[in-house]
Amino acid sequence: MPLGRIRTALHRARTVVAATTLALAVGTLAAAPPGVAAGSTLKAAAESDSRYFGTALTGGDLGVGNEMSVAKAQFDMLTPANEMKWDTVEPSNGSYNFGPGDQLVQFAQANGMRVRGHNLVWQNQLPGWVSGLPQSQVRSAMESHITTEATHYRGKVYAWDVVNEPLNGDGSLVPDVFYQAMGSGYLADALRTAHAADPGAKLYLNDYGIEGENAKSNALYSIAQSLLAQGVPLGGIGFESHFIVGQIPADMQANLQRFANLGLDVAVTELDDRTQTPASSSALQQQAADYATVVRDCLAVSRCVGVSQWGVDDAHSWIPGTFPGYGAATMWDGNDQPKPAYTSALAALGGSGSGGGGGGTSGALRAVGAGKCLDVPNASTTAGTQVQIYGCWNGANQVWTHTADGALTVTDAGTTLCLDAYGKGTTAGTKAVVWPCNGQSNQQWRLNGDGSVTGVQSGLCLDVSGASTADGALVQLWTCSGASNQKWTLG
């Protein structure tokens, strides 16, 4: 990632931070957050294919309830965003502070997550005392820092990003204090030192802008070849994957595979996909396609061990503070509601929210009799708009989430609305509309095992008027009959 990140209240300077968070989780699933049911999660779907799906967190995130509900339910790998970096861990020479990192490790252990250590050596978030050392003292300072930190966390981390973002865009090594003191040899020395301190951890080089085949990834490939030929304990390459919507490299899978062919693990370590804000419906649909592409590219490579998103939700993403005018880069919106990207990523993993009306939690709500999707006409955000059925096209106005409190929500252009029995009607023919969510019983729905969807307040069934199969047929509440125009599947 590019340099010069802004330090924000929750996500300090993420200036180019490096890879992390992927990992296989052990332990039971945490309690499901709003809109998410255990068994239909990213981590469960990834684990079924011996992969993992992770996230990055700061200590500040731990106090944000809804965000943590999503994190606990969906992710099985945790990458500390800042708390293991040099300026936090060793702010002055020989003086160590492991408290912030320990807090995140304890959170991970309590919630069945593994930890990706991030990072040991990086030219950013580096305290001034390191850069001010005489060159003759840099090697010993680096080795001491690596040894002390890796020993402290020995047995508690799955992998380390040993060296983070060592390359410029043209493939040359960044002329930081480590390169100036030791030349290119600092890479091998850092990896050997980390291995000596924690022989059980997988050791990575992590960088951005290397997802496709280009000058930078070619240079990293040559470095990896050279390190392996020297017997250096390099175990993997982290591909940060900070993308702009619609710009996933077409050769990403082939690039992952060539590194894997060297006998290395590969991982997508910091995935996000930014767009101009407010995000349009078309941008969110392209983002969904992008997330699915990245997941499929990983799954197609046997040594791609997992995918991690950088952060949990749009409200706590580093993107808006670093790229003004851009944001909406994650799979959850600012209210921790899943976006189309979540549905597509889960589907790409082979997960599903489908099943007889009640089995799913997020996705298209399909009318069985018509073979069409519950749709908000013209993606309207006007309260009282009656919903219809329409040909399924994966638009945000057709993606519904059944939340923990029983609501059916739809989110488009940053606005979340609830499916609502208009006017709290309890008679057959009451319109099914979208309305600002208020938690009342006319906005609560049961997804039943027989495929019907019933209103909690009225007991009536969600019904396609006149059993029509035409685009634009309106949806209402009607006395339950068991007919196919009252059968739905979610997912």
From TrEMBL:
Q: Which family does it belong to?
A: Belongs to the glycosyl hydrolase 10 (cellulase F) family.
Which InterPro entries does this chain map to? GH (IPR017853), GH10 (IPR044846), GH10_dom (IPR001000), Ricin_B-like_lectins (IPR035992), Ricin_B_lectin (IPR000772)
User: Taxonomic lineage of this organism?
Assistant: Bacteria, Bacillati, Actinomycetota, Actinomycetes, Kitasatosporales
Question: Which Pfam families did the record assign?
Answer: Glyco_hydro_10, Ricin_B_lectin
Q: Residue limits of the GH10 domain?
A: 36-348
Its protein name is Beta-xylanase
Which BP terms in the Gene Ontology apply to this protein?
xylan catabolic process
Native organism: Streptomyces tateyamensis
Please state the span of the N-terminal signal peptide per the UniProt entry.
1-31
